[in-house]
Amino acid sequence: MSKVSAILSCKDVRVTFAEAGVSIEVLNGVDLEVDKGRSVAITGASGSGKSTLLQALGGLLKPTAGDIALAGRRIDRLGARQLGTLRNRHLGFVYQFHHLLAEFTALENVAMPLLVRGDSINSTRQKATSMLSRVSLEHRVNHKPPELSGGERQRAAVARALVAEPDCVLADEPTGNLDQKTAQGVQALMLELVNKGDKALVVATHDLALAELLDVHYELSGGKLERIR
Question: Residue 67 above 90 pLDDT?
Answer without folding.
Answer: yes
